[in-house]
């Protein structure tokens, strides 16, 4: 899902290599892919609150990790033990679109399963930071989901530029990434997945959670992501760091 405001798959991307994005998981409802999720600790994942709308009970949810395939070969499927939706999530304007998922058992770390770094509340992601979106969503607006994980390089778009596109729909808890010229974006099925950025030191950080947008890859309407730094303190009330 990425709601229209915009449900989201990667538009303008290429197929990822096995183990290239070891922190992404396929969030599955009754064994069917619903959204992306990001491993931030051996027992915890970050996703979008809107992905869990309608059934926040953990019973029917699981996460598939360690494979470029949405399901099947090479994937480790772990049930969800607890779903924590941000208490201020607003489904009408998508503000505070973030949720935590606690796994029933810790994910075993390997070459294909690893957690990504969480930024501090004051971490900055400058405009020219190397950033990528990843997911199993549609490759074009109105298309079907893909079975192979896709990736695309995107630019962080400064808040004033994005405000021009979305006006008062954009809140301080949101950030934009993609291309103002269109063509590279998340789409339906990518929601909840990571916008990850690499520091010059080589460390990867999760900067955003795929949330919404106007269509997929449209000119002048980049993807909108939940700003992780805005929720770092909330996350640390549940995580051991």
From TrEMBL:
Keywords: Disulfide bond, Hydrolase, Protease, Serine protease. Signal peptide: none annotated. This is Transmembrane serine protease 9. Pfam families: Trypsin. Residues 10-240 form the Peptidase S1 domain. The keyword Cell membrane does not apply. It comes from Cyclopterus lumpus (Lumpsucker). The keyword NAD does not apply. The lineage of its organism: Eukaryota, Metazoa, Chordata, Craniata, Vertebrata. GO terms for molecular function: serine-type endopeptidase activity. GO terms for biological process: proteolysis. It comes from the Eukaryota.
């Amino acid at each position: 899902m990425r709601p229209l405001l915009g449900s989201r798959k990667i538009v303008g991307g290429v197929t990822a290599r096995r183990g290239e994005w070891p922190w992404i998981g396929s969030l599955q409802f009754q064994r069917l892919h619903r959204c992306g999720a990001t491993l931030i600790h051996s027992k915890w994942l970050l996703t979008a609150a809107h992905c869990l709308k309608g059934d926040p009970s953990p019973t029917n949810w699981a996460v598939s990790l360690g494979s470029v395939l949405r399901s099947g070969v090479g994937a480790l499927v772990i049930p969800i033990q607890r779903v924590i939706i941000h208490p201020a999530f607003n489904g009408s304007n998508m503000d505070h679109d973030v949720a935590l998922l606690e796994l029933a058992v810790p994910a075993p770390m390997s070459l294909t399963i690893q957690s990504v770094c969480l930024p501090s509340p004051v971490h900055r992601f400058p405009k020219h930071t190397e950033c990528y979106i990843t997911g199993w969503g549609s490759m074009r607006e109105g298309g079907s989901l893909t079975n192979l994980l896709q990736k695309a390089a995107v630019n962080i778009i400064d808040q004033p530029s994005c405000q021009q596109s979305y006006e008062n729909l954009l809140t301080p808890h949101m950030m934009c990434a993609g291309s103002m010229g269109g063509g590279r974006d998340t789409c339906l099925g990518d929601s909840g997945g990571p916008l990850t950025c690499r520091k010059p030191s080589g460390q990867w950080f999760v900067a955003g959670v795929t949330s919404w947008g106007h269509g997929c890859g449209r000119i002048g309407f980049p993807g909108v992501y939940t700003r992780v730094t805005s929720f770092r303190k909330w996350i640390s009330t549940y995580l051991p760091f």
